[in-house]
Amino acid sequence: MSNLSDELRKVFLFGVGAIAKTNEKSKEIIDELIEKGALTLEQGKAINEELKHNLQEKIAEKEKEINSELIRQVKDMKDLSDEDIQILKDKIKEVEKERNKK
User: For 49-61, what is the mean pLDDT?
Assistant: First the structure.
């Protein structure tokens, strides 16, 4: 009978040990996942900031290109005939009317 109670005691202690070990490992895994999640979140924020910065740079570049092209076109207008200038004025009036409707 002593042998059986020793075996039952061992099985019981094995179960308690397994539960304790599982608890320890679960805590380690949870802590590791939380750490990885926080790290991933920080990396995501950094990438987002970098993308916003790059987008702002691209927008600024495009604005400079557009402004340069507009300036070039305005300079070219000095060669327009009186008739072309009148057509341009009429178009501007049309655009202004459309804009005022909105």
Answer: 95
